Amino acid sequence: MSNHLILSMCTYMDGKHESLIQFQTEFPEFINQYTKERNLPLEGRIIRLVGCDDMSRKKEIYSNFPMYEIGEIIEEDAIFDRIGTIVQTGGIFLDKAIYSGTQVFNRPVSIDESKARDYMIAKMKGFYVPKTALLPQANYARYKPVDENRVDIDVNLDAAVRYVGGYPCYMKRAFGGGRAHVYKIKNKAELYEIYQITREYLMVLQENIDMDVYIRTFCFGTKVIHTSYNIDRPDGQKYDWPPSEFTEGDRLYLDKIIPALCQELLTPFCTMEIAKSKRDGRWYFIDITNGCNFDMREGELSTPIYKVARQNLAEELIHWTFNPRPMIVHSHLQEHVLRQQLCRAILKKQNPEFLLKFAKEIGLDLQNTRFDDEQKSFAEEYRKNYGN
To answer: What are the residues whose beta carbons fall under 8 Å from the beta carbon of 71, sequence distance 6 or more?
Structure first.
């Protein structure tokens, strides 16, 4: 058994972004060098699936994804996920890790990238969100020809447009997909045309925010880095530091609310898109990219931003590994997962402060022989699998 805590990145590699391969390959080395300089008992690793493409073959990169027995305890104490929402193998592995007490960064209750759910939760919690209407999937709508130039349907799209404030507005997939199927709708003809081609996708219609300032914020647990972003620029130039219109008051406000919003969405390590409205001066939550699609590539970011982001990311991942936060899961599994996290914290000498606080909040009784027995059983199984 390793005497160190183990922090791994769970990742998928292919040749699409060569610089992304560089970041992921260097991750364990960067973590290990950081902890060595500070004499911290922590080891960085990488859990990797590799696609079958020319770039991967030329670089001689291979998978080291573990075969595991479905009931065994996972060795890692913390995992930074960049795979769970895109590869099913990774998703199930991360579920298994959580059930055995591992802290997995950005493994929410529901793993699909649901924009609609994020907007709903953000609004429930008091954050400003553009007016958003959920549309029925187009392949469930009934179409009726009116004449040779017009088709009518039994979905009241006009009412949805009125609700979000008229044209222009945006139509987006309700379930993630990056920038795929994001449309700016300028008139009724475009609305009907785009709606019909979305077919099986669940879509939302959303208010257009007339922006004064647009910011893309990298959130690392409790730390944030604010950047400006322009998708039309080449790689390495898309990101820059915020413009002069971004005031110190804006920075202080967002430094406070962005980590709070990310926590509510169960994605404390993510990229957040926010915009300041010209109409009312408020900051609106536009979109979120979870850790799986993190733009942590020196070829995507400028080198100065990349270095600051990497340093902040490493510091927060290490801090959270030593001071684990409770994993929030479906209610019927919550007690089991928390007990496993506490058993691991005792065995691996993590700071259980946040776990014990959460246990108290949910009324979990740890002052009994049952938990002592569970802790001993956990330690025996861990040592059996990974040595003394």
So the answer is: none
- Cα Rg of the chain, angstroms: 23
β-partners of residue 11 are 48, 82
Confirm if 129 and 283 have CB atoms less than 8 A apart.
no
pLDDT of residue 108: 58
pTM to 2 decimals? 0.87
Using one digit for the tens of pLDDT, what is the confidence trace for 261-277? 998 888 888 889 999 99
CA dist., res. 37 & res. 55, Å (int) = 34
Q: CATH 3.30.470 spans which residues of the chain?
A: 211-322
Measuring CA to CA, which residue among 348, 345, 346, 340 is closest to residue 386? 348
CA 201 to centroid of chain Cα atoms: 21
pLDDT at 342 (0 to 100): 96
Cβ atoms within 10 Å, residue 312: 18
Residue 292 to residue 191: CA distance in whole angstroms: 31
pLDDT of 165 reads 96
CATH code that applies to domain 131-207: 3.30.1490
